[in-house]
Amino acid sequence: QVQLQESGPGLVKPSQTLSLTCAVSGASITTNYYYWSWIRQPPGKGLEWMGAIAYVGSTSHSPSLKSRASISRDTSKNQFTLQLSSVTPEDIAVYYCARIATMTGAMDYWGKGTLVTVSS
């Protein structure tokens, strides 16, 4: 069974960098044809895809984040990390990590999500 678990601070101050980690078990993040993504949902709004890191290590990001997002991985720990710089209250959201199967485009496994608040 594939499991994803987000971790990181629940509270970040404005202008700081948010860092979240997704620990993966039951599957390797280097397995062919899977992408590992970050998605968020602000209160009262829909899901927003933020970016992903591929099984080969290449990354893609949503243009709406204006280069504030960076995704990296640690294959020795089988985990990947999101860093979001210059946070504002507009970044308050539940942050999820998920696996994307490239064959179908489906996000077939999700973490439970972690709430991040931005406040001084």
Largest sheet: number of strands, sense, barrel closure: 7 strands, mixed
- CA radius of gyration: 14 Å
Low-confidence runs: none
Strand elements, count: 11
Order of helices and strands: EEEEEEEEEEE
Helix tally equals: 0
Question: What would the average pLDDT be, to the nearest integer?
Answer: 96
- Through-space gap between termini: 39 Å
Overall body shape: globular
Instruction: Give the % helix.
Output: under 10%
Describe the structure.
With 120 residues, the chain is mainly beta. Strands 2, 4, 5, 6, 9, 10 and 11 form a seven-stranded mixed β-sheet that branches. It is globular, with a radius of gyration of 14 Å. The mean pLDDT is 96.
Keywords for this entry:
single chain; 7-stranded mixed sheet; mainly beta; 120 residues; 0% helix
Task: Please provide a brief summary of the model.
The protein is mainly β. It is 0% helix and 53% strand.
Question: How would you summarize the topology of this molecule?
Answer:
Layout: E1 3-7, E2 11-12, E3 18-25, E4 34-41, E5 48-54, E6 59-61, E7 69-74, E8 79-84, E9 93-101, E10 106-110, E11 114-118
Parallel strand pairs: 2-11
Antiparallel strand pairs: 1-3, 3-8, 4-5, 4-9, 5-6, 7-8, 9-10, 9-11
